[in-house]
């Protein structure tokens, strides 16, 4: 652990777990603010979307009628911050009658593959997500 | 072991603030280190000195302040979350043209980078919230 104090080459695996719908509470927005600031620290970052958190990635969000800022375009910019792993739990989608087609297109340019545009969203099962969680150093749950 | 603590809910409405305080106190009494306590979301409201709970109830802000004084615990309030919710120190009040500040002794206001740093530096980052 002591080598981390120098802030050098060591990096940790950070997973941000998003559990709440995008509007109704501020958790989703303030989670995204942590992700964006955290991107500057060059850690190994992943996001997970479970429960109502899967609605954060819904296509065609419009907040005109509720007087709240629509921050959903920010998810599509995550690739520019080198945040490229967005795990969406399949069971949570199923329970809400959603499929991958209901979600935004979030992509990133893979610098290791001639900057080919690739999807950031990966639909995973509950048990796969449990394995992903088990492999993390730091989990922040919102 | 070195702990980082995250407090995501305000005082009194949720148990989270009390649990975080009791956990932090227990960790210190066992001889562990607390790298930082970071207050986020409504958790920033733990750091106003203007709460006046009834005399026969625990005073959550004073509990935190006492912990900071006794154990030199770093209590950090997220600036972005604090600005939304009206938690200001003297500098911020002046900078934002507000006529008062309300931060409690032992707390300081800083950025979200302090949360990430706590995640990097601590052996365990423990979150208290809903």
N-to-C CA distance of chain A: 26 Å
Please give the CATH class of chain B.
Answer: Alpha Beta
CATH class of chain A: Alpha Beta
Please identify which CATH superfamily of chain A we are dealing with: DsrEFH-like
Largest sheet of chain B, if any? 5 strands, parallel
Shape estimate of chain A: globular
Number of strands of chain B: 5
Task: Explain this structure.
The complex is a heterodimer of chains A (142) and B (130). Chain A contains four helices and seven strands, in the order E-H-E-H-E-H-E-E-E-H-E. Chain A has a single domain (11-141), classed as DsrEFH-like (Hypothetical Protein Ychn, Chain: A, 3-Layer(aba) Sandwich), CATH 3.40.1260.10. In chain A, 30% of the residues are buried. By secondary structure, chain A is an alpha/beta fold. The model of chain A is unreliable at 1-7 (pLDDT under 50). In chain A, the strands form two sheets. Chain A has a five-stranded parallel beta sheet. Chain A has a two-stranded antiparallel sheet with strand order 4-5. Chain B has a single domain, classed as Hypothetical Protein Ychn, Chain: A (3-Layer(aba) Sandwich). The two termini of chain B are 25 Å apart. In chain B, 44% of the residues are buried. At the A-B interface, helix 1 and strand 7 of A face helix 3 and helix 5 of B.
State the gist of this model.
The complex is a heterodimer of chains A (142) and B (130). With 142 residues, chain A is α/β, with parallel strands linked by helices. Chain A has 4 helices and 7 strands, in the order E-H-E-H-E-H-E-E-E-H-E.
Element layout with pairings:
The complex is a heterodimer of chains A (142) and B (130).
Chain A: E1 13-18, H1 27-38, E2 44-49, H2 73-76, E3 86-89, H3 90-95, E4 107-110, E5 116-119, E6 121-124, H4 126-134, E7 138-141
Parallel strand pairs in A: 1-2, 1-7, 2-3, 3-6
Antiparallel strand pairs in A: 4-5
Chain B: E1 2-7, H1 16-29, E2 33-39, H2 60-71, E3 75-78, H3 79-85, H4 90-95, E4 107-110, H5 113-121, E5 124-128
Helix pairs in contact in B: 1-2
